[in-house]
Design goal:
The structure is a single chain. By secondary structure, the chain is mainly alpha-helical. The chain has four helices and no strands. The relative contact order is 0.17.
Length: about 80
């Protein structure tokens, strides 16, 4: 279930992207991925790329999770 405050967080942080803050962008990506807002996570990642903000391991991890969720992949473990 999406967190209702995530949209508010994006609206508050949107002007902050101009500061090119990797920590803020990563936090937004992780939050969106955690609450199932995968399209929004990819949108933030697009902003990072546009502003040439260097993603870190956490950013890439959350983006990979969002990509997998959007594609509808499922994982299974064979015993």
């Amino acid at each position: 279930m999406p967190c209702p405050k995530m949209r508010d967080a994006y609206m508050v942080s949107d002007p902050v992207f101009l500061d090119k803050d990797a920590v803020l962008c990563t936090a937004m990506n992780v939050g969106y991925a955690r609450y199932g807002l995968d399209g929004a996570a990819l949108e933030v990642y697009g902003v990072m790329i546009y502003w040439r903000i260097q993603p870190n391991e956490c950013t890439l991890d959350s983006i990979l999770i969002s990509c997998v969720n959007l594609r509808g992949f499922s994982y299974s473990v064979d015993s």
